[in-house]
Structures are given as C-alpha cells and as structure tokens.
C-alpha cells in the first residue's frame, strides 16, 4: 500500500499561500539548462514493484483511493499518482542521479528486511561497507532530488543549496536532514510507502516563506528535510545524518510533532542498545 498523507488539520492549507507560489518552469529545476521532459517517481519504482508482486497496489491520498493493477500500471501512471509532473531533464533525472538511486535501493532493501524501529540508529557501515561515506551522501542526494520535485509540484522555490548539494557539495548550510520514524505513519501505513504533508511557515505579513518541512518513508522509517530562509535557522538545528556512520533514528508521535521537530523518547530497547554502543556511536539528533 502506498499513501500520500493529507494536510495537518492544525496547519493552514498551502492554498492560503497561493500568492507566494512560483509557476513551473519549462527548464529542469536542477540544471536550469535543459528542457523539463521527464517526471521523477514519487515512490521508487523498484519499491512499488517489490510491494506489488503479482497482485495490486492501493494508493490513498487527497483524491481518494486508486488501485494500480499490474506492472504496466506503474509505467503508464494513468491516474498521476506514481510520478511527479515533468520538471526534470532526462540527463539529470536518469544519468546524473544513477548513483543516488543505487544508494537508495540498498537503503530501502535494508529497511524492508530489518526491524529498524526498535534500534537507536541505522548502521550505514553495515549497509554500505567501506564506502559508507560516499554512499550515504548519495542516499541523502536521492532524497534531496525527491524533495526538490515535491517543492516544484507545490509551487515552493527550490533552495539554491539543494541544487548545490546535488552537484556535489557535502552539506546544505540552510537545511537539515535527519532519519526519522513516526508512530502515526507506522500505525496507518505499516510496510507501505508514505509521503508526509508539505509543511510550510511564512512571515507574519505572508510575503515570503520562512521554512519548509517534508518527509518520505519506507514503512515508518524515512528522512525528514527542513529548510530555513535567511536569518531563520536556529543556532543548533542538529547535524546532518549523512555525516555519521551510525546516526540517531529520531522518534515522533505524529506529523504535528514531525513538523515542530519535537521528538519522543525512543523505546527502552533502543536506549539500552545506544548505551551499549556508546564508544562507537555518533549522533545527529534533532535539537
């Protein structure tokens, strides 16, 4: 089952900020040079194919429920629920991002075969071996590309730092990415694929965006991205998950907590495991 999460009832809908949205451009949002002729998958096709097998997938979202029958439905995307709109060129969406896709495939395979939610963090050396530093950066860039496509879909300006990160920079000074698990997603989505709402904040005058928060999950475990406009980033936002061999898995009760960055305590087993692994443990916990 795949699920595209609806908007938080406690947050104003994105429609309230329509005057701040930017219109889609004819050029690829990443390179800003070639025509936007392809659409990135919202959910990795390999994930969807694995989940579907010989059966049917069910998609839930703001437009109701859709059934995807057979592998051909993933390619045709008749209902427009599998892919984003065309916003990237073929070079960026395929050739340039192939290392990102390979890193994500290994990560997704690990999440679907390991009881990650009960652990204090994720061991990237176990997933990627000696190349964990390069591969974990590529994993983060896979998610950065995904979030960029979501920003274009929602009319949010794509930060320059995100493009620079995709081009090879090893950090984003105005953004933070963390590994997360959310209880409400676990209860509803189970082993499915889930996209959070696209949360935004604006200044009091509603003349510009102040921050975005987005998340994407495999099962109940995924990556949270937060961007801040100039002057809005907190002094200690936490460190990037992709800089550590075993980053913390930040736990949230629901999407409201995810948006606010308010974590809950991990399970007693996770806390005990973290205590046992203290000498080698590295943290990227949200502040």
Question: How would you describe the overall organization of this protein?
Answer:
The protein is α/β, with parallel strands linked by helices and 287 residues long. The chain has one domain (2-280). 33% of the residues lie in helices and 18% in strands. It contains 10 helices and 9 strands. Strands 1, 2, 3, 4, 5, 6, 7, 8 and 9 form a 9-stranded mixed β-sheet that branches. A hairpin with a 2-residue loop joins strand 7 and strand 8. Helix 4 packs across helix 6 (132-154). It is globular. The protein starts with a strand and ends in an 11-residue tail after the last helix. 38% of the residues are buried.
Give the SSE map.
Elements: E1 2-4, H1 45-52, E2 56-61, E3 64-69, H2 71-76, H3 90-96, H4 98-113, H5 124-128, H6 132-154, H7 160-166, E4 175-182, H8 183-189, E5 193-195, E6 199-202, E7 209-218, E8 221-228, E9 249-252, H9 255-260, H10 268-276
Parallel strand pairs: 1-2, 1-5, 4-9
Antiparallel strand pairs: 2-3, 4-8, 5-7, 6-7, 7-8
Keywords summarizing the entry:
alpha/beta, 287 residues, 18% strand, nine-stranded mixed sheet, disordered N terminus
Q: Could you tell me the radius of gyration in angstroms?
A: 18 Å
**Quaternary structure classification:** single chain
Major sheet details: 9 strands, mixed
- The assigned structural class equals alpha/beta
Return the average pLDDT rounded to an integer: 84
Residue stretches low in confidence (pLDDT < 50, at least 5 long) are 1-9, 279-283
Secondary-structure element string = EHEEHHHHHHEHEEEEEHH
**Spatial separation of the terminal alpha carbons:** 33 Å
Give the overall shape, derived from the CA principal axes.
globular
Q: How helix-rich are the residues, as a percent range?
A: 25-40%
Q: Beta-strand level of the residues, as a percent range?
A: 15-25%
């Amino acid at each position: 089952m795949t699920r595209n999460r609806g908007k938080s009832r406690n947050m104003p809908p994105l429609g309230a900020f329509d005057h701040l949205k930017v219109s889609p451009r004819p050029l690829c949002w990443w390179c800003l040079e070639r025509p936007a002729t392809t659409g990135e998958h919202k959910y990795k096709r390999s994930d969807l194919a694995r989940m579907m097998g010989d059966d049917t997938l069910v998609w839930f979202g703001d437009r109701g429920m859709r059934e995807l029958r057979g592998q051909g439905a993933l390619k045709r995307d008749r209902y427009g629920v599998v892919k984003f709109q065309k916003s990237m060129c073929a070079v960026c969406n395929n050739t340039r991002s192939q290392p990102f896709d390979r890193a994500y495939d290994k990560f997704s395979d690990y999440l679907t075969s390991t009881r990650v939610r009960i652990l204090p963090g994720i061991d990237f050396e176990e997933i990627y071996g000696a190349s964990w530093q390069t591969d974990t950066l590529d994993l983060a860039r896979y998610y950065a590309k995904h979030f960029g496509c979501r920003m274009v879909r929602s009319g949010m300006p794509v930060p320059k730092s995100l493009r620079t990160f995709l081009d090879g920079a090893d950090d984003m000074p105005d953004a933070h990415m963390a590994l997360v698990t959310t209880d409400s997603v676990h209860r509803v989505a189970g082993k499915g694929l889930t996209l959070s709402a696209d949360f935004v904040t604006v200044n009091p005058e509603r003349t510009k965006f102040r921050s975005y928060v987005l998340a994407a999950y495999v099962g109940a475990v995924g990556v949270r991205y937060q961007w801040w406009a100039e002057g809005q980033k907190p002094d200690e936002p936490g460190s990037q998950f992709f800089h550590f061999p075993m980053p913390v898995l930040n736990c949230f009760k629901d999407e409201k907590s995810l948006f606010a960055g308010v974590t809950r305590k991990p399970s007693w087993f996770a806390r005990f495991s973290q205590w046992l692994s203290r000498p080698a443990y590295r943290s990227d916990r949200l502040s």
